[in-house]
Batch of 2 targets.
Target 1
Amino acid sequence: KAGVTQTPRYLIKTRGQQVTLSCSPISGHRSVSWYQQTPGQGLQFLFEYFSETQRNKGNFPGRFSGRQFSNSRSEMNVSTLELGDSALYLCASTSRGQNTGELFFGEGSRLTVL
Amino acid sequence: QKEVEQDPGPLSVPEGAIVSLNCTYSNSAFQYFMWYRQYSRKGPELLMYTYSSGNKEDGRFTAQVDKSSKYISLFIRDSQPSDSATYLCAHPRSNQFYFGTGTSLTVIP
């Protein structure tokens, strides 16, 4: 069974640009969540989608947005990039929902903003 | 106050040592806790989970929850160089997971 796939793995952008990251969950998993990981803050929750509906959103500005498609694939977008957006963005999927189920993570998309 | 707080480390131990990794949590109603392990350049993977209080053992790993002090611990016996990774404690609630900042562990051969 294929794991969670994230693309691209690495990318470099400049301030003010926008970026779109993609996540393909494990087949059959309907819940997809996104986390930002930085050395100082650790993993911080961005948002969670289940059956194309955003069920929860973390404390991030509106420049961070996401969506989920009918095949459970998900994208997140960051507009007007800032230097502080440099981070590893992790996508995770689960079959049982976020309250009790195990999260299966992808390897992440490492974003560098110059 | 963050929901889950973790000793930042880094921690460096010789091979064969017993390792203790610790977290504290803020809400006494929390009952479900997880430990994730993250190797360099990889995403986190579930190592162990515990429910309520007490100990749970899996091979060389033991997870412990002390509800009276709101303390979560992970013990690694006979540590191996392959245990070198970042360990994250986590708690799920309201359709999201709350993670500690992670403790980086290096086991020296």
Note: DSSP finds no helices and eleven strands in chain A.
Target 2
Amino acid sequence: TQLLEQSPQFLSIQEGENLTVYCNSSSVFSSLQWYRQEPGEGPVLLVTVVTGGEVKKLKRLTFQFGDARKDSSLHITAAQPGDTGLYLCAGEYNFNKFYFGSGTKLNVKP
Amino acid sequence: DTGVSQNPRHKITKRGQNVTFRCDPISEHNRLYWYRQTLGQGPEFLTYFQNEAQLEKSRLLSDRFSAERPKGSFSTLEIQRTEQGDSAMYLCASSHRAHGYTFGSGTRLTVV
């Protein structure tokens, strides 16, 4: 059973399009992280959000943490083929470890 | 420091054999985590260490699995009497407290 639900599971879009992926839970997180993973490699940390309502930007990526700290979203503007990968959210519950969602597999076609 | 290093990158073993994986964390990180990831899933927590102390073990970690972190430096994960269901990517991560993991590239285990 996944504590975090990510949607959509798969997303295939054309280069230049915008997209949003979601991470939801019924539990409150003390913090939440987003990672990007390429095949055969470990996940790479993109951002950590801590405060409810927090918004962070990383170039074309915008991360938002829900006010109640139960959900988060990742928005990518003008997607590029280099954005292709598995996007994972991970929620911290007990200030000592993170639980991961199943991920959103993004494919950006040139 | 070159980040978190895992060895080997790939391991193919016959069912019933024992295997051991090694993780070298970032030197100043006091926390070390082991996760397992199967195809189409996110990483699942197995166990973590703070320095040399193993503080938590998941119920996924059956008695065939053992992890150590002698002297709070590198860690090993051993699987005894491997089963086909053990086939997965085994990921190691380190962090300073819980502020953002740095993952290694993983060890891909295939049990045939």
Note: The two ends of chain A are 35 Å apart (CA to CA).
